[in-house]
Amino acid sequence: MSTKIMWILNVTPDSFFDWGKYDSFGEAKKQIDDMIKSWVDIIDVWWFSSRPNSLLPSIEEELDRIIPVLEYLESLDVEVSVDTCRSEVVKELVKYKNIKYINDISGLQDEKILDLLKNTNIWYILMHIKGTPENMQDNPIYEDVIKEINKFFDEKLTLLKSKWIKNIVLDPGFGFWKTIEHNYEILKNLDKFKIYWYPVLCGLSRKSMIYKPLGLSPSEVLSETIALNMLAISKWANIIRVHDVKEHIWVVKLWEYLKTEISSYKDALDNIFRYEIIRDYSLEKAKNALTKLWNPDKNYKIIHIAGTNGKWSVSKMVFSVLKSAWKKVWVFTSPHLIDIRERFETEEWLISKKDFVKVLNQVLKTSDDLSYFEKCTLIALEYFKQKKCEYVILETGCGWRLDTTNIVNPIITAITSIWIDHTELLWDTLEKIAFEKAGIIKENVPVVYNFENEIIEKKAKEVNALIIFNDKKIKTNLLWKHQEKNAAIAYEICKYIWIDENIINKWLQNVVHRWRLDLITDNILVDWAHNTDWLKTLKEYIEINIKNNYDNICYCFSLKKWKDINLVFEVFWEDKKYVLIDSDSNLLADFADYRWKYDFMTNKKLLEQAKSNKKDFYVVFGSLYMIWEFLW
């Protein structure tokens, strides 16, 4: 099943529900065996009560309770989660090979845990809480419970990312410093936590939010618990934490059975975006799915492109040339601005909604556990086969060794640039990024690039890949010098596949490519610059071509969450006129600490001001989400 079921194994004598039913090892073992037969996904070893006014036992008592159970579980094929909030305990737990999750209900009060998890594959479950179980229900007050939980996640995720913890599950903390009304507000808005791109865990099982309003006891609300868990699943809960495994398994199976055949475009979007946040750093699932689709990638020639900046531009250039050379060519790019179908560009423009639904259903039959990007890639590969295309330009996502697009065998690869970006997901040095980007290089497949890099050159030689190096500048209609370098890569790709040089040169002058140095009015320039290298290119263009013609240059921007605003100030340090774009999007940073210093405007107000003030020039740049809001 796509939704994972986590069973609560209480090895404590004072649980609020089962009151020590499994606190002896013998009783716990019997129940574990039964749960394994019931196909439980995760066993969550819960060694102390978290009910209000409960106290933590000693570290020695904690280890005495859980170690015998863990030693038994190590011989079984099941994922194990352990509830703990103390680094002294985690230090012992990391020795057990099948521990997959550390479930920390303290809200990360012991940061030493992160240092112990940094070089492991263990997932850290970050739960929202105020106070401790001992005092968590003293007086729960929120102005806006959803916004405050999001703020908590923002702060803690910043810390987790700084420690290079990438395997993260979010738990909004039902019942932890929340009233009944708060809990139901969270449940109704559970899908709002999807913005973080991490799996969401829900622990609703038999809690007071269920039985108190009904005047019942915990033992009397099984059906009510199931009902609320199904609501949580419909709102993108990825893991449900339950006392009653068998009863939930069959209901979830029926739910997913009903969802297997998608009939509408809206349902297709619900399905594909729900699993945007599930991460499995492996290519095996996607490879298996590709095989079940009868390897559609064998039906056309693939041009595979990676890089930090420029890969979208190169894709558009190659598409322009091949289409003009009467080749049947399609493009898979990412991300999209408005509609996910933008990722699947054909000579008829975009994949139709009807075809999108049809091909997604074909992909879903290959596996019920594919992530967002895996589904997108497989839809592209299968759809392009059905359209009987000749060439496919395939752009990587994050562009590392385990990028899903690496399941194909291209005829040529290209790496457009190497720069530090997406450090919250990837790496923090150019060397590490170069190593990951080089993962696109395949045995005996030529690779095109235009910058000196020992790591890429070494990888190419190791796999006997022909190096096609071109650091010259080739003219294109796209603005500024960096596009001339991108054009050189596009030129070599097209030349390698025997396109006439006259056609290449002609159609590199006719590339359609929006949102890159895109002058939408006389004094408004839009650009999707959001990392240092890109911002420097933007600055150079402004200083040479724009700055002397206007009284002021207004730098108007917004960035995605966790992007450092200082990277903008460091590039444009001598220019003091900034406008921070105010947005309701939870995907964008709110820059609250800078509201006293700089102007804040909505997109609408900014556009109105720019149109009325022709003496100033407005550069609108940053997150793609903001660019979309600005243009539409």
What is the helical fraction, as a range of percent?
A: 25-40%
Structural class: alpha/beta
Q: For the report, how would you describe the main beta sheet?
A: 8 strands, parallel
Envelope shape: globular
Question: Please, could you describe this protein's structure?
Answer:
This protein is α/β, with parallel strands linked by helices and 632 residues long. The chain is 38% helix and 15% strand. The strands form three sheets. It has an eight-stranded parallel β-sheet. An eight-stranded mixed β-sheet has the order 12-11-10-13-9-14-15-16, with helices on both faces. It has a six-stranded mixed β-sheet with strand order 17-18-22-19-20-21, covered by helices on one side.
